[in-house]
Structure formats: C-alpha cells, structure tokens
Amino acid sequence: MVTNMKDWVVDSGATRHIYGNRSAFTSYTIVKKGEEQVFMGNSRSTLVIGKLKVLLKLTSGKMLALSDVLHVPDIHWNLVSVSLLGKTGVRILFDYDKIV
Questions:
Q1: How open is the CA angle 31-36-38, to the nearest 5 degrees?
Q2: How many Å apart are CA 76 and CA 98, to the nearest integer?
Q3: What is the spatial distance between Cα 80 and Cα 72, in angstroms, rounded to a whole number?
Q4: Mind spelling out the 3-state secondary structure of the chain?
Q5: What's the confidence (pLDDT) of residue 99?
Q6: What is the pLDDT of residue 3?
Q7: C-beta separation of 83 from 93 below 8 A
Q8: Which of 2, 7, 25, 52 has the most CB atoms around it within 10 Å of its CB?
Q9: Burial of 77 by CB count in 10 Å (0-12 exposed, 13-18 middle, 19+ buried)?
Q10: CA distances (Å), 90 to each of 25, 64, 80, in order?
Q11: pTM for this model (two decimals)
Q12: How far is C-alpha 3 from the chain's CA centre?
C-alpha cells in the first residue's frame, strides 16, 4: 500500500520513521515482544511490534521508499525523520504549503 504525505508529520526531532498502521507496510518483519521500544515526547514509552518498508507518495507526486520504519500502533502521528532522510541522501525542500 502507498501512503499519502498527508498521513505523515515530517519531524526534525524524530530519530526514526514511525507508522501506526500495519497495512501501510510493503514488507514487514515482526519484532519480538519487548525487544524494541520507542520513547515518545510525552515521556512515555511504547513497544515496537514490527518494522521494515513503507512507500510514501510525496506532494510532488514522486514516490519515496522509507526503510526500517517502525510499526508502533500506539503512535498518534506517523513520523518521517528528517535526519534519517538526510543520511540517505534525500534533500528536503519546504515550500509554503507543501514539502517538495
């Protein structure tokens, strides 16, 4: 399944890409219970139950494959990590009302 950019928050403080809905993953690996967790901004932690790849349709119409995305059902906002995108060579341009 391809997800729309409108379903995500581009987060300069996030250290990982995180998505809450299993159906968005194009490939998937189950994480053993308790093996990995995410610490959130509200000082809570929650378990990661799976991870791998999500396809993201950008506002420009281009497709971006996000790797090592964490599946965290308890997350309220799906997060794209700006720092991880930069490490993979993706350039981000913020325009008035969209991300190009």
A1: 125
A2: 21
A3: 13
A4: CEEEHHHEEEECCCCCCEECCHHHEEEEEECCCCCCEEECCCCCEEECCEEEEEEEECCCCCEEEEEEEEECCCCCCEEEEHHHHHHCCCCCCECCCCEC
A5: 66
A6: 74
A7: no
A8: 25
A9: middle
A10: 20, 9, 12
A11: 0.86
A12: 10
Q: 56 near 79, Cβ under 8 Å?
A: no
Instruction: Give strand pairing partners of 57.
Output: 4, 63
* DSSP-based three-state secondary structure for 30: strand
pLDDT in tens, the chain (100 residues): 677 777 889 899 999 999 999 998 999 999 999 999 999 888 899 999 999 999 988 877 888 999 999 999 999 899 999 999 989 888 887 777 766 6
Distance of CA 90 to the CA centre of its chain: 14
Amino acid at 39: F
Chain Cα centroid distance, residue 16? 7
DSSP for residue 94: B
DSSP secondary structure letter of residue 86: H
If DSSP codes are grouped into helix, strand and coil, which group holds residue 32?
coil
